[in-house]
Amino acid sequence: MIALGALLAAAAPETGNSAGGGEHIAAILLALVAVFVATKLLGEIAQRLGQPAVLGELIAGVLLGGSVLGLLDPADPVIATMAEIGVLVLLFTIGLETELAALVRVGSEATTVAVAGVILPFGLGYLAATALGLAQVPALVCGAALCATSVGISARVLSELGWLDTNEGRVVLGAAVIDDIIGLIILAVVASLVGGGPSPSVGSVARIAGVAVAFVAVAVLVGSSIARPVFAVVERIRAAGALGLFGLAFAFLLAWLAARFGSAMIVGAFAAGLVLYRLPQREQIERATTAIGHFFVPIFFAAVGAAVNLRALADPRSLALGGALIVCGIAGKIAAGYAPWWFSGRKLLVGIAMMPRGEVGLIFAQMGLAAGAISAGEYGAIMLMVLATTFVTPISLARLTSRGGRRQPSEADRPGDGGLDDLVAGTSQSPRSASPPPSS
Hints:
It contains 19 helices and no strands.
């Protein structure tokens, strides 16, 4: 892969600051060639090694970035815009996979795990960062990056191990859904603070969180009443891909409205997915969105990987911060698995399954870096935490579940239908036989 990148780097035109539009477009095209080839190849290698494909995409970005080959500049306006679209598509897809009613069905266990899984890592991360000398806002970004769980990675790992359709699997999925919603609120709060907003206070946090909650509530209530008749009409349009494009247009519209109302754009994209979840056309919208996501989402992961400064990461202070965040991230989520003491299932399995931060932690880190709230070394430390928690989870779950034997395959063990699993995995699953899922 490095040899391929070296060849592409040698072929890259010398653009410089005075390069014309044509040379800039040529450089962007070359960067996209490198991104698509590297993310898919390294994603495939990661999967063959039993790891999520997103890890391969991150490593591809590191290799293509300024620390190694210099082919991908995440600060380039074109790359940054496409990466931002990738984030919106990813959060829209997560919303399309999220059923609000699941929050009620999973019960108090999932709620307790979710709340403890946000408070404990956030508090531990913030305290560790401040103890290492970070200012308040960078410490908040570090703590926020530890909060959420990557529901796509957790669901995929549990599915492959045959534990998704179990009490433990349901608790993890329900807690991850709540984690995402709480994480979006925290992201909106932190985004306002790092964007030059007022210093943290109870009033400002409550106001920003209130805006995020109110926006999601209004969007779901109003959007649900409008979306069904609108998409019933759209379904009659014979032009190919109309449903998918209108679905994305709806997501981008809510993202724009969220920004206009002072919230984060990803809150709007996520709310759009929640609204469209109940539509009969959801699967068609999801397939079309996933197809578009296969273009934009790898650009996002490669861009965040390219932003890692390996030289800054070699700084002992960055390594110390990264190690502290890894310990806090793992300990906080495992402790959260034991929070519902009345739960009779395997609490350690629940805690470990909540560990991977994946794309969610990267969103926090990228936001902080883009706003100038954290340095390149601090960004690299968060990246270390994301990589470590995402790497450790599949290995730990495989060892833990092997002690109790493989469970019955669940519905999620069936071939991908173009949903979140396929999008996060970066590849479509090949058909394979699957037994019918057990009745609940």
